[in-house]
Write a structure and sequence with these properties.
The structure holds two protein chains of two kinds. Chain A has nine helices and 20 strands. Chain A is of the alpha+beta class. In chain A, helix 2 packs across helix 3, helix 2 packs parallel to helix 4 and helix 3 crosses helix 4. By secondary structure, chain B is mainly alpha-helical. In chain B, helix 3 crosses helix 7, helix 3 packs antiparallel against helix 9 and helix 9 runs antiparallel to helix 12. Chain B starts with 7 loop residues before the first helix and ends with a helix. Classes of the chains: A alpha+beta, B mainly alpha.
């Protein structure tokens, strides 16, 4: 029962906000929309939900064209970043509201509400009102409503963004399990690459109103199709620099060059963009990290188990991310070492070449 | 125990003086008149509660009070649902929002006696635009200077015209404070327009509606200028509301004692009903 987008676009005040997008979203795993704020994740969700008008293209559910079908008739659920529950209703009534509207028998409603409440540990709160709950409980109520409804498509629009760190981790671990085996297409929007990797499934990378790549999450991470996709799916941001390939060597700036191996060695001579993830640029050399580059340390961050350093070298500002605590002095010239095999190469038009 | 700093009293004093001069002293003067008889020259005779008894037993007071409740009841029954309906049908974003808001605010900006004079001229059977049209074009006999029913229709219509906007603006303020996400959630639940009103819009409007009802009650219960200018309480006594009657007794007949007693009873009723309204309407929120 896939949810399919066929060349959909959306206009806001004449400008094309969502560029022609086609996606086939399948049930059975999470479909993550990953992109920065303003990249069009929420717009795409609203278009699928029928809340925002589509300028052109089609939306299909189960092979049926629902483009012109009103939201009320689509049998879908949506969980927002903000905890949206009906404030004057109890948790029970909140979870039951779509079922009541659908005219379901009271006994059946009770069964479904209690099942959803058990899954989300809301049993003791069923008689409370939303404002008497913590943020996590409020969001669990919204999730319970989506589960009890047993809709064909569930849209989760950054549902964890407003929760504190611990709750976010807890709920994120539960989420894939919650929807497993329910047969619904689950669409999950997030701006955090890490979240996409943890949720697995398939990921669509979004940038500036278009999907730059869509595929199995881990593969999408490992194999960015273009430089834009590589930028979206990296946190801290991926390091990039312009290089010139000359013979078997890559030349970065005037004084840094290294021997190319694998596919990159077979590229035609010329200009390319090289990209490398921060955790392949380390402050100490090892068997893999054999290419040395030096730069002036600008900013350092210590997160307990990881150290990161932003450093300025001729080609621009790069980031190094390494395990453990590494002491940096801001302003010092530091030697970093990158793994040449972890480099991605992109043609000037942005397409991945090696 | 430590000696408390008594300086704070000095800061309260100006407010106390202000309240004393603009509320307490005038009020006490009325209380003073309500228990005495005076024939001028600052000579007073003690009357006790006689005036109160006289007013409470008087047919005239009962009739005016009845008319007052009828007027207030009628305008509330019309203005509250009408105000909500208009607020619901107003646009929530775009070019027409300020246009609608200004149009809504216009009637409220017109001075009360001007409103009365406007409607008087508007509805006069021979020269008024509406009066002439009804009588001479449509052939409906309509004369608010002769017919009590026509007079009532006119003062109620006038009040609806003048004050429905207040209910509209307050309801609208409640409506626009509802985030889009709630409407979206309701759509996704498959809710009908009625459910959206019943479970999202109405609960959100409840607080401002309470205020709107209270304001409209107090205002309409104490109304004087507009009906006085429009009908002068007539024809006969058919539109003599409490305040009009009060002014007749106080200034027309110069019966200061009974007028003072009536003022206090009037005030007590307004206070009591307002309190009842408020307690009943906010009861749910406290539980």
């Amino acid at each position: 029962m896939p949810l399919e987008l066929k060349q959909v676009t959306k206009r806001v005040g004449g400008a094309l906000h969502i560029k022609e997008t086609s996606l086939v979203l399948e049930p059975g795993h999470f479909n993550v929309l990953l992109g920065a704020t303003g990249s069009g994740k929420t717009s795409l969700i609203k278009m699928m939900a029928g809340l925002d008008p589509i300028a052109s293209g089609q939306v299909l559910m189960d092979g049926q064209d629902v483009t012109r079908l009103s939201t009320q008739k689509r049998n879908i659920s949506l969980v927002h970043q903000f905890f949206i529950n009906y404030p004057h209703m109890t948790v029970y009534d909140n979870i039951a509201s779509p079922l009541k509207v659908a005219g379901m028998a009271k006994s059946e409603i009770q069964g479904r509400v209690e099942e959803a409440a058990d899954i989300l540990q809301l049993r003791p709160m069923l008689n409370r009102r939303p404002h008497e709950l913590s943020g996590g409980q409020q969001q669990r109520t919204a999730l319970a409503r989506a589960i009890a409804k047993e809709s064909k498509a569930v849209f989760l629009d950054e549902p964890l963004a407003n929760l504190d760190y611990k709750l976010r981790e807890e709920l994120r671990d539960q989420l894939p399990e919650l929807f497993a085996g329910r047969g619904a297409v689950v669409v999950y929007a997030t701006s955090e690459p890490e979240e996409a990797l943890l949720l697995g499934g398939r990921t669509a990378l979004m940038e500036d109103g278009r999907v730059t790549q869509f595929g199995v999450t881990a593969e999408t991470y490992r194999d960015p199709a273009n430089v834009r996709a590589a930028r979206v799916f990296s946190d801290p941001p991926i390091n990039t620099a312009e290089i010139v390939k000359q013979g078997s060597r890559a030349v970065l700036g005037g004084d840094l060059s290294w021997e190319l191996t694998g596919e990159a060695a077979n590229l035609a001579d010329g200009q390319y963009t090289v990209a490398i993830r921060p955790h392949h640029v380390l402050p100490v050399a090892d068997a893999q990290c054999t290419v040395s580059l030096s730069g002036r340390v600008q900013v350092t961050e210590l997160s307990g188990s990881e150290s990161s350093a932003h450093f300025e070298m001729g080609a621009g500002s790069w980031v190094s991310l390494s395990a453990g605590v590494h002491p940096y002095e801001v302003g010092e010239i530091h030697e970093f070492h990158m793994d040449p095999k972890a480099c991605y190469f992109f043609a000037p038009d942005g397409a991945r070449v090696a | 125990m430590k000696t408390e700093n008594q300086k704070a009293w000095f800061f309260v004093l100006p407010v106390l003086l202000l309240v004393a001069f603009n509320a307490l002293i005038p009020m006490m003067t009325v209380v003073n008149y309500s228990v005495q008889e005076t024939f001028g020259d600052n000579v007073f005779f003690w009357e006790g509660l006689n005036w109160f008894q006289q007013i409470l037993r008087s047919e005239r007071f009962h009739a005016a009070l009845g008319r007052q409740f009828m007027f207030t009841g009628l305008i509330l029954i019309i203005e509250i649902p009408l105000g909500i309906a208009i607020a619901l049908s107003m646009p929530r974003k775009g070019f027409w929002v300020p246009v609608c808001l200004v149009l809504m605010a216009l009637p409220m900006l017109i001075p009360w006696n001007v409103v009365g004079a406007m409607w008087n001229i508007f509805t006069l059977p021979d020269i008024g635009l509406l009066g002439y049209f009804l009588n001479h074009v449509l052939g409906i006999s309509y004369d608010m200077t002769q017919d009590p029913v026509a007079a009532w229709i006119t003062i109620v219509t006038m009040d609806v015209w003048h004050w429905t906007s207040l209910v509209v603006l307050l309801s609208y303020a409640g409506l626009v404070s509802i985030p889009d996400a709630y409407y979206q959630a309701a759509k996704i639940d498959g809710a009908s327009n009625w459910s959206v009103f019943r479970f999202i819009q109405f609960p959100k409007m409840k607080t401002v509606l309470t205020i709107a009802i209270l304001l409209r009650f107090m205002d309409s219960f104490n109304i004087y200028t507009e009906p006085f200018v429009l009908t002068g309480g007539g024809p006969g006594n058919s539109t003599t509301l409490l305040s009009i009657d009060l002014v007749k007794i106080a200034l027309g007949q110069f019966d200061l004692g009974p007028a003072a007693a009536m003022s206090l009873i009037y005030f007590a009723i307004t206070l009591l009903v307002s309190w009842l309204f408020y307690t009943l309407m906010t009861k749910d929120d406290l539980n």
